[in-house]
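#onboarding

Welcome to the new folks! Below is a worked example of what a typical request in this channel looks like: someone posts a single protein sequence, and someone else replies with the predicted structure as tokens. Don't worry about understanding the tokens yet, we'll cover that in week two.

Example request:
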Amino acid sequence: MPARRVVTSLAVAGILSILGCSDDGLGKRYAVTGKVTYKGQPVKRGSVIFNPEKEEGRGASSDIAEDGTYSLTTQTPGDGAFPGTYKVTIVSKNVDMDKVEAASKKLAEKAGVKATMPDPAMLARQSRVTKSEIPAKYASQDRSGLTREVKAESNTFDFALED
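Example response:
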């Protein structure tokens, strides 16, 4: 009979993991969404990054959609952020992905492999030489002047960026 209990316990554990038991031991996350504008117009690309003020905290980020909206992710897409205070950074650059992909392909061919995705070093290099579409201060958590407190509820934070 004990062997049957072990099998039953394993079956229950397997079903719970398949159903997506969402408690990963880190705590509950809450939805954080909003819109980023610059000079009254939607920021059409980039990232929003929430950096926790406390060292033991965990950050969250999101890509910015073409209409300027975002939805934070900590671990799985759109899962939100943990309650707490965050310093916010926003980055928006129009990186020439054709250039990055061509350079990545050339590098991969030199190495005798097939390029399956852009090379991170090439992407970083192109990002460094690409001009920001918003003031550079927003890319620094110490200079952006943006802080937000995520509460244990659904949160909406719009960012109206200025020069």
